[in-house]
């Protein structure tokens, strides 16, 4: 009996990127400033002092990158639309040049037989909206719906999967809670209004997209299994509270269950009708997985009601993240067991790892650690499917080495190495491995197994 995992017919294999991390061209064709442009200009915010001003220059090299996807045999490509390209000030009419870029990208993908999967918000809020409060301001949710309508009107006939938000938990916690990401606010748990207004925007945008497209609509969150970092009763209670805060706060209300009582949230920002709007039916749920999180009760009073501690006993990536493939299987099975009939089909919309990859003198870029990582995680997805979880696709993070937010260009996640001085793309060993995996899964014998 083969030990290879089995995936259902029609399973979508793809790769993912995000606009600010790869596009560059931040001042071209009428694009407005984003919060990340502003954040990167502040000294000390980015590890290597860099920005996404050029990044991978995908704005000019998108056809080359689409050809790389075609070379993989990818069936889908998850990209994000830069809100400041469409509405430079976050409101009003669409910028025709901005829409034209995504029009060209989508048509190029379809020409290669690749399904476009578009994320509307991957953290690059127009700076003009941030100047009015950003996601702390309720009006931003309505501006997001207006933007969704503009993009849906332009691309709704060709995009095959819509994702409203990427990882609202990370954008809320790191952008508004801890100040490690743009816009750099340090509100601790006072950041909850930013979470709520993102979810409200998701519900409003879902309704706007429904009027413009028949393609499925989803939301993507970062999920983490939560493990106890100590053996006390207080540590066990902290696990429940952190799971509610990180995982359930961004899923329960979307699936019609309201905010979890176990999460330490001030719900005074929630208005009548908001939860009904947030619970607009979705067609799929995106799951981003990188590693489990271990927490314990805080040692010192004040501050956050949890303390994150290292997960030990596992290999580490170049980012110093623990490599725990079984965590992905457990997560997918856990979502099914928790939400049952309320859970829509799942897509693994991000999964990947960073290592310090270099192109050798022979022109090759060997990354055996990434091959091992991806192989183990793909097997974990297969195990979840074998356990009865409805998973429809898997997207590697990322197609390209890119601008890794506060880490700048110090972390490489790509299947393809990018020389950031020249823009040269060099497919890594993992690119060839993934190409062969996709080809094997697409073969008649694999489909029939």
UniProtKB/TrEMBL annotation:
<dbReference type="InterPro" id="IPR017736">
    <property type="entry name" value="Glyco_hydro_1_beta-glucosidase"/>
</dbReference>
<feature type="active site" description="Proton donor">
    <location>
        <position position="167"/>
    </location>
</feature>
<keyword id="KW-0624">Polysaccharide degradation</keyword>
<dbReference type="InterPro" id="IPR001360">
    <property type="entry name" value="Glyco_hydro_1"/>
</dbReference>
<feature type="binding site">
    <location>
        <begin position="404"/>
        <end position="405"/>
    </location>
    <ligand>
        <name>substrate</name>
    </ligand>
</feature>
<keyword id="KW-0136">Cellulose degradation</keyword>
<dbReference type="InterPro" id="IPR017853">
    <property type="entry name" value="GH"/>
</dbReference>
<keyword id="KW-0378">Hydrolase</keyword>
<feature type="binding site">
    <location>
        <position position="166"/>
    </location>
    <ligand>
        <name>substrate</name>
    </ligand>
</feature>
<dbReference type="Pfam" id="PF00232">
    <property type="entry name" value="Glyco_hydro_1"/>
</dbReference>
<keyword id="KW-0326">Glycosidase</keyword>
<feature type="binding site">
    <location>
        <position position="290"/>
    </location>
    <ligand>
        <name>substrate</name>
    </ligand>
</feature>
<feature type="binding site">
    <location>
        <position position="122"/>
    </location>
    <ligand>
        <name>substrate</name>
    </ligand>
</feature>
<protein>
    <recommendedName>
        <fullName>Beta-glucosidase</fullName>
        <ecNumber>3.2.1.21</ecNumber>
    </recommendedName>
</protein>
<dbReference type="GO" id="GO:0005829">
    <property type="term" value="C:cytosol"/>
</dbReference>
<dbReference type="GO" id="GO:0008422">
    <property type="term" value="F:beta-glucosidase activity"/>
</dbReference>
<feature type="active site" description="Nucleophile">
    <location>
        <position position="350"/>
    </location>
</feature>
<dbReference type="GO" id="GO:0030245">
    <property type="term" value="P:cellulose catabolic process"/>
</dbReference>
<comment type="similarity">
    <text>Belongs to the glycosyl hydrolase 1 family.</text>
</comment>
<feature type="binding site">
    <location>
        <position position="397"/>
    </location>
    <ligand>
        <name>substrate</name>
    </ligand>
</feature>
<feature type="binding site">
    <location>
        <position position="21"/>
    </location>
    <ligand>
        <name>substrate</name>
    </ligand>
</feature>
<dbReference type="InterPro" id="IPR033132">
    <property type="entry name" value="GH_1_N_CS"/>
</dbReference>
<keyword id="KW-0119">Carbohydrate metabolism</keyword>
